[in-house]
């Protein structure tokens, strides 16, 4: 009997050549960037606006299902395929976010923060069920646009889907855009100020209600964008929102609430830990992210980058 | 005079990841009952449903609801193994008839086996074992396995390994990832570095879709053939698209088996639900058949468990998948097909394993 | 008179915030029976000094001695229990509690008995009577049952002082107690300090120069973290340096 | 704001619970037993969240540890004695709480929430991924604990009575605790920890003590749950349960012990209501929708949770609007801004 | 001119003839929940005028201000700002009319740097004025220049006060409302603030000021209003108010 199989889980320790190592680094990077994209909407609504948004996963799911359900309709009416679907999806998301903020959140800011937990929990249930009623409970795949459907050779036997590069690109663009808006523009300053003292912001002539409605809408749009962009990679299935929710919070919190740089770094760190953890420490792969979070927060109780 | 209605408790997932499976099983079951004119064993059937949410922490309560509140005569359920384990425990304690239409946990017809507990689907071990035989037969020597780290995955891999090593092959790498993580890239890279002859995979639902797509996307499909238990490509082909084309899997059912029995079933199902049936629908349907057979033997008196079990143990169930019998531990002894994805179908290419019985390790009955 | 007893002594206290030296080698001694005022430009480091003395933040270097013991390594609560009380420049109250409960909870710090979980806190005579007493001394008799978050700004300032007194400290570090108080309350507060003076050592940080010169026994002047003068009120008032840096034409 | 629970209401609730078995069937007893267990769990969390201001998102871990300890410590044959098994389970949960609390109390706010989640997830993966507790399929309890012959928790009615006694004991204990000096100190920590420290309270030991008590009480709930079901599964430690308990106490109304009680019952009853086929027929499978909409409506209409309903009704009757509350809240918040 | 509460009919605040009123509030009432805090107060401010608001702690000064600015929503009475009805206006609308607010307790944004606190507020005045540039604010408060990158929460109390005033100036208001603006400031800076108030008065900006130093307020303002338990008990030109024999009793001195 070959030596290699000596009972369950007792296989020779994994070893890695340079090429494999480099590919794994690429995987880690790419996964980290995807994570950031998924968490970006939360960074905005939770990290910067300060609304504890459990429904983030639902917005993400809505995005993914839009990519699936909207694409044929958009393609038939407007043409342009994937990219026009993205555009139209974002427009719808902004509308959705705007209306949601108006109907469900505008009166919550002055209340105890935990009320938001309850509200967004209710929203999760509603969205998940609405999804079930509208599109059913089946698993669906979404194809990347033909333009990005190719693969690139990687190592001896592997290839790398071009679409994943595109996802990483979108993520970097989102990260840069958010960073710029929040740290360099007055809009960003107003938003951050609003999370600290709404009354004073109003006293400076800023319509905080409108401002926050817009920001919330933008947060929803980002989550939906993430869902739509990730759909071809992750496929579309019931409960998909749930599975990204906690991880998104982990990203935002490890990075330091309110810090976009921090969130990006945290996402990349998780990417590395998860990727190499699965290969090098498969027994503990499930907890590694949480161990990472616990260690970082015990070391730096305010996350990697304190907001500011 | 009319006998009192027979209460059938359906404990299936109506929400969550497995909702679609729950629906298919229920449809199959109801189809059979409808075919019998709404009666089994001479008694009109009444359904009571509970959404088990695939949450084992709520499972005991949900079963109790059916047994204590609704006083059902028979329990049918469920998809999730952990939930099924809780059901089996209650069924065993209360003596209520239980037919498991999907969950493949070995224990249900192993250590937990009981005269009143039956399964119309498969055991995890069975599916893995059948695949192992098939992969060995196709001439592969070194295989890597990959699955989620949870009971079903472990059991399937164990079954696969048992058959594959028996046939002289060797498992060179066992890859796991935490359930329900779907980020496969790292493990695929690892797989490529290992260079096995073939890969054996078990995933289901969204995870299966993503895995198959990622496998193809990473270019491994061409160099390292992918095998799996049937769940890898069942109910997911539409979503997997081209990435699944050509993949071999083993399961106790296949699309367009072409037998008259299957054709009739598929036609009836499609007519009733405007949907194509899948393996889950078949399992639900057969749960109905098994109940019908048992109840016929006891003339609708569900309390005569001994006779009910005896009848089923002798019975040949005329399933759309092909006839099967029940083992001593009440698990189907059935044929497994080696299927290949062609177009949007899992086409049978022949038998992977004939009349395969679960060893029912740990069952004392 | 015997030699005055030093209750609190800071020696060589320094605090850096990044590159900024907020407090630079400051030493001072608070004696029983005297009011020691610390004045200085905005951002001179007065509050930071109080924070270091009370243990709220650790000094970058230097040491603190309380009632003859080196307490540099002690936590803030421990110093507080040993007899060090402070007030904050920014209101630091329990806004959702009543005024009475604010004071009572502060008084409870002296008899904590956390293990006595079957005793009602309200039944503790010592803390309730102290609470009433300090509230009345701070001029809050009429407000005992008001939620303290709903008080006017000046009333909150009064409460801030009441809570500091409730712990019965021997050493009081008061960070701008008069800020936000009207003329009447200012007078009341100065009378209160006057009454506390015997038996206590009081550090008073204030920008109200009339008040400072009325009550202080000794004045330390800080500019940019460093002490530029520490002397009797008259000497400080006369110092041209202090006038240029802080007092102006006062 | 003084938080006096209304003793009459609570007395009525407990009286109703005591009399309930007289009118209920088997299932009713089972169901209420379950809800009472959740109420114990909710109370344990209320001590942290509502009273101390520590939002713990890992309560399921202590619950699960209590439950797993029950099963793992029970001998294979013969009923274990309640007398040592129950304390042992609470001790096990309390010990983990001590460990988790000692570390996680270094952080604050949302960071604290996430660290407690992290530690709960670690416990979850230990039972999920290792054979220790039967892995993902869970393990069974073979014989239920008892004290001699007169208290056998295998009998549903006995279990009901025992659970009710536990609930009453926990409620009473917490009510006393919260009005004691210890409880007031916790309240002070919730509102303004900085001031607490400045007046001489070492807040860390206080918080840690609250955390351990809470963990042990959650362990008690876990024990009862394991005994009731005779089956434990890793999902008992998942964050979904931690979240659900949090939802219960928010729904009931934070800052009131009876809020936890009301919340646990309301949450369970709402689920049952919307799941009921008798009322909703085929639509019952979409029960999430009804539950979700109800929760949303309750947030919108009941700013103080369910416990605030009587007060709101009174205000309505007297004709006093809600704007006063809003002014108050914003004022109080700005204090910390 | 309108009269305020009956007891002071003879000393109604009459703004200088010919200058347009920018604030004209009549019979203003305000409530916090069920407690009635303001009982019908009249207040007029003309362009470029400095008006002082006096009274002991808790008499309703801040409440009057917050009512005018739209922060207190339970209110009654007629409020006209810059000729427009603002009885129900929301705070940001009031601010955009050209009213800047330096609240008691400062209201500095703790999570923004000093620079950001200032920059975010910048806005042109009603007539397009932009004389209060970032630079000019820093010249007025040099201490802030050294602290530009610090967060609001890292400032000393006085620095926060300077920042709050500087921020108000960056909005180029027509009326600046200072609620205890000199609290916690060193005497030199206080003198500087009073000088700035004089400056802006010179440039035609009106000021409504609350300050504990009532002598300074009366000396530097055109008119003054004294509140007692939510009612105006004295009102008129500052010199007259200062000379009123009842004044000390209202201020508790
Ligand atoms: N947490 C901090 N981080 C960085 N700098 C700080 C921090 N806290 C205070 N400072 C700086 O330290 C210096 C001293 O501040 P401190 O509050 O002690 O001044 P102060 O003398 O009390 O002034 P004021 O009279 O204005 O209250 C200030 O320049 C302030 O900006
Ligand atoms: N949010 C609130 N809710 C209820 N009552 C309040 C609220 N804010 C203030 N009050 C009360 O209204 C009265 C007037 O308060 P206001 O703040 O206007 O006083 P003030 O004259 O500004 O006093 P100070 O000089 O102390 O700032 C006070 O008695 C105060 O207790
Ligand atoms: Mg200071
Ligand atoms: Mg005021």
UniProtKB/TrEMBL annotation, chain A:
<feature type="transmembrane region" description="Helical">
    <location>
        <begin position="162"/>
        <end position="182"/>
    </location>
</feature>
<dbReference type="InterPro" id="IPR052157">
    <property type="entry name" value="BCAA_transport_permease"/>
</dbReference>
<keyword id="KW-0029">Amino-acid transport</keyword>
<keyword id="KW-0812">Transmembrane</keyword>
<keyword id="KW-0472">Membrane</keyword>
<feature type="transmembrane region" description="Helical">
    <location>
        <begin position="31"/>
        <end position="52"/>
    </location>
</feature>
<dbReference type="InterPro" id="IPR001851">
    <property type="entry name" value="ABC_transp_permease"/>
</dbReference>
<dbReference type="GO" id="GO:0022857">
    <property type="term" value="F:transmembrane transporter activity"/>
</dbReference>
<dbReference type="Pfam" id="PF02653">
    <property type="entry name" value="BPD_transp_2"/>
</dbReference>
<feature type="transmembrane region" description="Helical">
    <location>
        <begin position="85"/>
        <end position="109"/>
    </location>
</feature>
<protein>
    <submittedName>
        <fullName>Amino acid/amide ABC transporter membrane protein 1 (HAAT family)</fullName>
    </submittedName>
</protein>
<feature type="transmembrane region" description="Helical">
    <location>
        <begin position="210"/>
        <end position="233"/>
    </location>
</feature>
TrEMBL record, chain C:
<dbReference type="GO" id="GO:0005886">
    <property type="term" value="C:plasma membrane"/>
</dbReference>
<dbReference type="InterPro" id="IPR051120">
    <property type="entry name" value="ABC_AA/LPS_Transport"/>
</dbReference>
<dbReference type="InterPro" id="IPR003593">
    <property type="entry name" value="AAA+_ATPase"/>
</dbReference>
<dbReference type="Pfam" id="PF12399">
    <property type="entry name" value="BCA_ABC_TP_C"/>
</dbReference>
<feature type="domain" description="ABC transporter">
    <location>
        <begin position="8"/>
        <end position="249"/>
    </location>
</feature>
<dbReference type="GO" id="GO:0005524">
    <property type="term" value="F:ATP binding"/>
</dbReference>
<keyword id="KW-0547">Nucleotide-binding</keyword>
<keyword id="KW-1003">Cell membrane</keyword>
<dbReference type="GO" id="GO:0016887">
    <property type="term" value="F:ATP hydrolysis activity"/>
</dbReference>
<dbReference type="Pfam" id="PF00005">
    <property type="entry name" value="ABC_tran"/>
</dbReference>
<dbReference type="InterPro" id="IPR003439">
    <property type="entry name" value="ABC_transporter-like_ATP-bd"/>
</dbReference>
<protein>
    <submittedName>
        <fullName>Amino acid/amide ABC transporter ATP-binding protein 1 (HAAT family)</fullName>
    </submittedName>
</protein>
Automatic annotation (TrEMBL), chain D:
<feature type="transmembrane region" description="Helical">
    <location>
        <begin position="204"/>
        <end position="227"/>
    </location>
</feature>
<feature type="transmembrane region" description="Helical">
    <location>
        <begin position="35"/>
        <end position="55"/>
    </location>
</feature>
<dbReference type="InterPro" id="IPR043428">
    <property type="entry name" value="LivM-like"/>
</dbReference>
<feature type="transmembrane region" description="Helical">
    <location>
        <begin position="159"/>
        <end position="178"/>
    </location>
</feature>
<keyword id="KW-1003">Cell membrane</keyword>
<protein>
    <submittedName>
        <fullName>Amino acid/amide ABC transporter membrane protein 2 (HAAT family)</fullName>
    </submittedName>
</protein>
<feature type="transmembrane region" description="Helical">
    <location>
        <begin position="110"/>
        <end position="127"/>
    </location>
</feature>
<keyword id="KW-1133">Transmembrane helix</keyword>
<dbReference type="GO" id="GO:0005886">
    <property type="term" value="C:plasma membrane"/>
</dbReference>
<dbReference type="InterPro" id="IPR001851">
    <property type="entry name" value="ABC_transp_permease"/>
</dbReference>
<keyword id="KW-0472">Membrane</keyword>
<feature type="transmembrane region" description="Helical">
    <location>
        <begin position="82"/>
        <end position="103"/>
    </location>
</feature>
From TrEMBL, chain E:
<keyword id="KW-0813">Transport</keyword>
<keyword id="KW-1003">Cell membrane</keyword>
<keyword id="KW-0029">Amino-acid transport</keyword>
<dbReference type="InterPro" id="IPR052156">
    <property type="entry name" value="BCAA_Transport_ATP-bd_LivF"/>
</dbReference>
<dbReference type="GO" id="GO:0016887">
    <property type="term" value="F:ATP hydrolysis activity"/>
</dbReference>
<dbReference type="InterPro" id="IPR027417">
    <property type="entry name" value="P-loop_NTPase"/>
</dbReference>
<keyword id="KW-0472">Membrane</keyword>
<comment type="similarity">
    <text>Belongs to the ABC transporter superfamily.</text>
</comment>
<dbReference type="GO" id="GO:0015658">
    <property type="term" value="F:branched-chain amino acid transmembrane transporter activity"/>
</dbReference>
<keyword id="KW-0547">Nucleotide-binding</keyword>
<dbReference type="Pfam" id="PF00005">
    <property type="entry name" value="ABC_tran"/>
</dbReference>
<dbReference type="GO" id="GO:0005524">
    <property type="term" value="F:ATP binding"/>
</dbReference>
């Amino acid at each position: 009997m070959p030596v290699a199989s000596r009972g369950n889980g007792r296989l020779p320790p994994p070893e890695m050549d340079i090429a494999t190592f480099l590919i794994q680094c690429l995987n880690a990077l790419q996964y980290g960037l995807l994570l950031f994209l998924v968490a970006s909407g939360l960074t905005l609504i939770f990290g910067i606006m300060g609304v504890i948004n459990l429904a983030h996963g639902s917005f993400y799911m809505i995005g993914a299902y839009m990519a699936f359900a909207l694409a044929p309709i958009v393609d038939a009416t407007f043409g342009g395929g994937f990219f026009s679907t993205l555009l139209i999806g974002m427009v719808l998301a902004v509308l959705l976010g705007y209306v949601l903020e108006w109907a469900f959140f505008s009166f919550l800011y002055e209340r105890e923060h935990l009320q938001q937990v309850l509200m967004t929990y209710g929203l999760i249930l509603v969205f998940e069920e609405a999804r079930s009623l509208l599109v059913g409970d089946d698993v669906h795949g979404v194809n990347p646009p033909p333009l990005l459907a190719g693969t690139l050779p990687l190592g001896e036997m592997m290839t790398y889907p071009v679409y994943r590069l595109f996802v990483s690109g979108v993520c970097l663009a989102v990260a840069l855009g958010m960073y710029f808006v929040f740290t360099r523009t007055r809009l960003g300053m107003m938003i951050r100020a609003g999370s600290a003292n709404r009354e004073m912001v109003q006293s400076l002539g800023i319509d905080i209600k409108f401002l926050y409605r817009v920001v919330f809408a933008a947060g929803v749009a980002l989550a939906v964008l993430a869902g739509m962009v990730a759909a071809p990679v992750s496929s579309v299935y019931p409960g998909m929102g749930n599975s990204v929710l906690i991880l998104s919070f982990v990203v935002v919190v490890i990075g330091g609430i309110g810090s976009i740089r921090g969130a990006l770094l945290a996402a990349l760190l998780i990417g590395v830990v998860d990727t190499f953890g699965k290969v090098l420490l498969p027994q503990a792969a499930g907890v590694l992210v949480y161990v990472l979070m616990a260690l970082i927060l015990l070391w730096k109780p305010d996350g990697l980058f304190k907001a500011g | 005079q009319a006998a009192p209605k027979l209460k059938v408790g359906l404990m299936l997932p109506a929400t969550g990841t497995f909702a679609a499976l729950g629906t298919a099983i229920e449809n199959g079951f109801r189809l059979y009952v409808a075919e019998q004119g709404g009666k089994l064993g001479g008694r009109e059937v009444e359904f009571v449903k509970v959404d088990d949410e695939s949450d084992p922490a709520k499972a005991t309560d949900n079963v109790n609801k059916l047994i204590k509140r609704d006083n059902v005569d028979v329990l049918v359920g469920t998809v999730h193994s952990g939930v099924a384990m809780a059901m089996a425990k209650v069924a065993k304690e209360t003596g209520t008839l239980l037919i498991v239409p999907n969950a493949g946990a070995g224990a249900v017809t192993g250590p937990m086996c009981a005269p009143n507990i039956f399964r119309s689907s498969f055991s995890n071990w069975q599916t893995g074992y059948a695949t192992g035989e098939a992969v060995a037969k196709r001439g592969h020597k070194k295989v890597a396995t990959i699955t989620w780290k949870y009971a079903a995955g472990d059991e399937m891999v164990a079954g696969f390994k048992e058959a594959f090593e028996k046939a002289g092959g060797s498992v060179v790498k066992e890859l796991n990832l935490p359930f329900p993580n779907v980020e496969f890239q790292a493990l695929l890279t690892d797989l490529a570095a290992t260079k096995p002859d073939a890969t054996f995979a078990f995933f289901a639902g969204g995870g299966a879709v993503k895995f198959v797509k990622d496998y193809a996307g990473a270019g491994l499909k061409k160099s390292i053939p992918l095998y799996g238990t049937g769940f890898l490509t069942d109910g997911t082909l539409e979503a997997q698209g081209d990435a699944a084309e050509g993949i071999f899997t083993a399961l106790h059912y296949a699309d367009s088996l072409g037998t008259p029995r299957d054709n009739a079933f598929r036609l009836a199902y499609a007519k009733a639900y405007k949907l194509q049936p899948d393996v889950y629908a078949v399992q639900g349907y057969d749960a109905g058949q098994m109940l019908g057979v048992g109840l016929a033997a006891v003339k609708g008196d569900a309390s005569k468990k001994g006779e009910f079990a005896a009848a089923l143990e002798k019975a040949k169930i005329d399933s759309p998948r092909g006839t099967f019998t029940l083992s001593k531990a009440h698990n189907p002894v059935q044929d497994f097909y080696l299927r290949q994805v062609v177009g949007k179908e899992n086409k049978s290419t022949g038998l992977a394993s004939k009349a395969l019985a679960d060893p029912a390790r740990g069952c004392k009955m | 008179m015997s030699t005055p007893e030093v209750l609190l002594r800071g020696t060589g206290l320094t605090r850096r915030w990044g590159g900024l030296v907020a407090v630079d080698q400051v030493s001072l001694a608070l004696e029983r029976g005297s009011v020691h005022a610390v004045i200085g430009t905005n951002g001179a480091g007065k509050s930071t000094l109080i924070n270091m003395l009370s243990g709220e933040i650790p000094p970058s270097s230097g040491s603190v001695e309380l009632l003859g013991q080196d307490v540099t390594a002690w936590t803030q609560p421990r110093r507080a229990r040993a007899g060090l009380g402070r007030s904050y420049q920014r209101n630091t109250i329990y806004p959702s509690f009543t005024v009475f409960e604010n004071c009572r909870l502060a008084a409870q710090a002296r008899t904590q008995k956390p293990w006595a979980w079957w005793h009602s806190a309200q039944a503790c005579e010592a803390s309730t009577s102290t609470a009433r007493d300090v509230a009345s001394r701070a001029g809050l008799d009429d407000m005992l049952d008001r939620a303290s978050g709903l008080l006017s700004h000046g009333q909150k300032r009064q409460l801030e002082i009441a809570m500091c007194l409730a712990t019965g400290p021997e050493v009081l570090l008061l960070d701008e107690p008069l800020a936000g108080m009207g003329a009447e309350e200012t007078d009341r507060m100065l009378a209160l300090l006057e009454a506390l003076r015997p038996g206590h050592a009081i550090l008073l940080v204030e920008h109200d120069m009339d008040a400072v010169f009325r009550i202080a026994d000794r004045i330390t002047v800080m500019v940019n973290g460093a002490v530029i003068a520490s002397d009797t009120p008259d000497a400080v008032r006369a110092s041209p340096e202090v006038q240029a840096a802080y007092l102006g034409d006062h | 704001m003084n938080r006096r629970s209304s003793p009459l209401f609570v007395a009525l609730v407990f009286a109703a619970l005591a009399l309930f078995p007289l009118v209920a069937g088997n299932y009713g007893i089972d169901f209420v037993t379950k809800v009472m267990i959740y109420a114990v769990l909710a109370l344990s969390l209320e001590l942290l969240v509502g009273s101390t201001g520590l939002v713990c998102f890992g309560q399921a871990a202590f619950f699960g540890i209590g439950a797993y300890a029950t099963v793992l410590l029970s001998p294979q044959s013969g009923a274990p004695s309640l007398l040592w098994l129950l304390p042992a389970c609470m001790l096990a949960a309390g010990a983990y709480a001590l460990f988790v609390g000692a570390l996680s109390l270094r952080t604050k706010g949302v960071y604290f929430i996430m660290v407690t989640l992290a530690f709960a997830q670690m416990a979850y993966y230990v039972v999920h991924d290792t054979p220790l507790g039967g892995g993902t399929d869970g393990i069974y309890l073979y014989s239920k604990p008892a004290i001699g012959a007169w208290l056998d928790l295998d009998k549903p009615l006995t279990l009901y009575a025992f659970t009710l006694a536990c609930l009453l004991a926990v409620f009473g204990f917490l009510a006393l605790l919260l009005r004691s000096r210890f409880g007031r100190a916790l309240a002070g920590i919730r509102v303004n920890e900085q001031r607490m420290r400045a007046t001489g309270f070492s807040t860390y030991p206080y918080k840690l003590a609250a955390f351990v008590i809470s963990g042990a009480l959650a362990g008690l709930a876990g024990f009862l749950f394991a005994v009731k079901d005779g089956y434990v599964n890793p999902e008992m430690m998942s964050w979904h349960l931690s979240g659900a308990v949090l939802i219960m106490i928010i729904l009931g109304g934070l800052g009131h012990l009876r809020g936890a009680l009301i919340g646990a019952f309301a949450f369970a009853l709402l689920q049952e209501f919307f799941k009921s086929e008798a009322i909703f027929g085929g639509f019952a499978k979409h029960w999430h929708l009804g539950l979700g909409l109800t929760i949303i409506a309750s947030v919108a209409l009941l700013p103080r949770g369910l416990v605030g309903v009587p007060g709101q009704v009174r205000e309505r009757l007297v004709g006093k609007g809600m704007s006063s509350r809003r002014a108050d809240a914003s004022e109080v918040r700005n204090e910390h801004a | 001119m309108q009269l305020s509460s009956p007891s002071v009919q003879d000393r109604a605040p009459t703004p200088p003839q010919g200058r347009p009123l920018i604030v004209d509030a009549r019979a203003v009432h305000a409530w916090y929940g069920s407690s009635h805090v303001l009982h019908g107060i009249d207040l007029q401010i003309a362009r470029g005028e400095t008006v002082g608001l006096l009274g002991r702690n808790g008499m309703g000064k801040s409440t009057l201000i917050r009512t005018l600015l739209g922060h207190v929503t339970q209110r009654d009475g007629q409020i006209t700002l810059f000729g427009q009805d603002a009885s129900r206006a929301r705070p940001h609308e009031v601010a955009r009319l050209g009213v800047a607010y330096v609240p008691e307790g400062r209201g500095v944004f703790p999570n923004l740097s000093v620079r950001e606190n200032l920059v975010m507020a910048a806005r042109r005045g009603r007539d397009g004025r932009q004389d209060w540039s970032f630079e000019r604010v820093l010249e007025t408060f040099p201490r802030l220049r050294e602290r530009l990158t610090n967060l609001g929460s890292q400032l000393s109390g006085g620095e926060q006060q300077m920042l709050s005033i500087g921020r108000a100036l960056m909005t180029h208001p027509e009326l600046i409302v200072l609620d205890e603006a000199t609290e916690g400031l060193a005497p030199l800076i206080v003198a500087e603030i009073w000088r700035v108030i004089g400056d802006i008065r010179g440039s035609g900006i009106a000021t409504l000021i609350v300050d504990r130093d009532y002598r300074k307020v009366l000396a530097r303002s055109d008119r003054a209003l004294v509140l007692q338990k939510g009612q105006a008990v004295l009102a008129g030109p500052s010199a007259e108010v200062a000379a009123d024999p009842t004044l000390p009793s209202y201020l508790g001195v």
